[in-house]
Automatic annotation (TrEMBL):
<keyword id="KW-0472">Membrane</keyword>
<comment type="similarity">
    <text>Belongs to the fatty acid desaturase CarF family.</text>
</comment>
<protein>
    <submittedName>
        <fullName>Transmembrane protein 189</fullName>
    </submittedName>
</protein>
<dbReference type="InterPro" id="IPR019547">
    <property type="entry name" value="Lipid_desat"/>
</dbReference>
<keyword id="KW-0812">Transmembrane</keyword>
<feature type="transmembrane region" description="Helical">
    <location>
        <begin position="120"/>
        <end position="145"/>
    </location>
</feature>
<keyword id="KW-1133">Transmembrane helix</keyword>
<feature type="domain" description="Lipid desaturase">
    <location>
        <begin position="131"/>
        <end position="308"/>
    </location>
</feature>
<feature type="transmembrane region" description="Helical">
    <location>
        <begin position="90"/>
        <end position="113"/>
    </location>
</feature>
<dbReference type="InterPro" id="IPR052601">
    <property type="entry name" value="Plasmalogen_desaturase"/>
</dbReference>
<dbReference type="Pfam" id="PF10520">
    <property type="entry name" value="Lipid_desat"/>
</dbReference>
Length: 317
């Protein structure tokens, strides 16, 4: 018989934890898939649909040491990281979002103009492969930024790694970011590829354009889904007032579902890094893809994975 736990959180969470102590196996197979159990999620991640329930779980009430919040906007580390978002960074994001949207519209116009029905099957396959590539790309960048480097690094630290550190200790912060702050970095990444596409449409002959058309469809869908990855990610953290069509796409796993992404946010955030569709998370986990890379890098360099991430998390205590 399981010993009762001392739990300081909402009644809903308490009930779920008490049931979870006897039904872990069932919860795993029926709800989560065999990576993290329901109990692990409740104990080791912020309850985003109940953000005030920062649980502290111990065997005895008197053993509990007073601490700050484990997650959320009141966490000291989260507040410090949020304050590092600069005016210069905001300006760069605004400019890049505008350029990227203009390139998307121009390339879409030429793709429609140059479309040929006889190439439809190859174009569909290329587009699907573009989406899968975007999912893998999101996972690789997410894994690298979560696992390695420091906010103190010049140039990329405050501008690129900072949001990843903030996100782990305040997962709902992304839901308070506007379109520019949410998507600025991802839109920036796609500009060189979309720019090259437009250059080809403007300078190549008709035969050359048709020869590269399938490839350009792949690049375009890859760019669209890369650009929208953080918006999709934001939706996976939004538990209230989502548009019905977004919920439908999540429930049918066309884009990253909320329940699926909760697995990544179980501390220490070492799995399920793909955040565009999430289609590749399960096979990559079964292949131990990320853990193998971490082992190789740690063995050859001596760097500890997620060392900087842990440092910021501990600022809340």
């Amino acid at each position: 018989m399981a010993m009762p736990l001392s739990i300081s959180c909402s009644q809903r969470v308490k009930e779920a934890l008490m049931v979870g102590s006897t039904l872990d196996a069932t919860m795993t197979t029926k709800i989560l898939a065999p990576v993290k159990t329901e109990r692990q999620i409740l104990e080791n991640s912020m309850l985003e649909d109940d953000p005030n329930a920062n649980c502290t779980i111990g065997q005895q009430e008197e053993e509990r040491v007073p601490t700050g919040p484990r997650w959320g906007p009141q966490h000291k580390g989260a507040q410090e990281l949020a304050n590092l978002y600069s005016t210069g960074k905001r300006l760069q994001e605004c400019v890049c979002v505008c350029i990227c949207l203009a390139l998307m519209l121009a390339n879409f116009f030429y793709l429609v103009l140059k479309f040929r029905w006889q190439n439809a099957s190859a174009i569909i396959a290329a587009a699907l492969f573009g989406i899968v590539s975007a999912d893998f790309g999101s996972g690789f960048v997410h894994w690298a930024a979560d696992t390695w480097g420091s906010v103190d690094l010049p140039l990329i630290g405050k501008n690129f790694l900072r949001p990843f550190r903030e996100h782990h200790i305040d997962p709902t912060s992304i839901t308070r970011h506007d379109f520019i702050e949410t998507n600025g970095d991802n839109f920036t990444v796609t500009i060189p590829f979309l720019g090259r596409m437009l250059w080809d449409f403007l300078t190549l002959s008709e035969d050359e354009v048709q020869g590269k058309f399938t490839w350009n469809c792949y690049v375009f869908l890859l760019a669209i889904f890369v650009a929208m990855t953080n918006q999709i990610h934001k939706w996976s953290h939004t538990y209230f007032l989502l548009p019905g069509w977004v919920v439908w796409l999540q429930e049918h796993h066309v884009i990253l579902p909320r329940r699926h992404h909760r697995i990544h946010h179980v501390a220490p955030h070492e799995t399920y890094f793909c955040i565009t569709t999430g289609w590749l998370n399960w096979p990559l986990e079964k292949l131990h893809f990320w853990s193998f890379l971490e082992y190789v890098i740690e063995y050859t360099t001596g760097c500890k994975p997620r060392d900087d991430d842990l440092k910021w998390a501990q600022k809340g205590t």
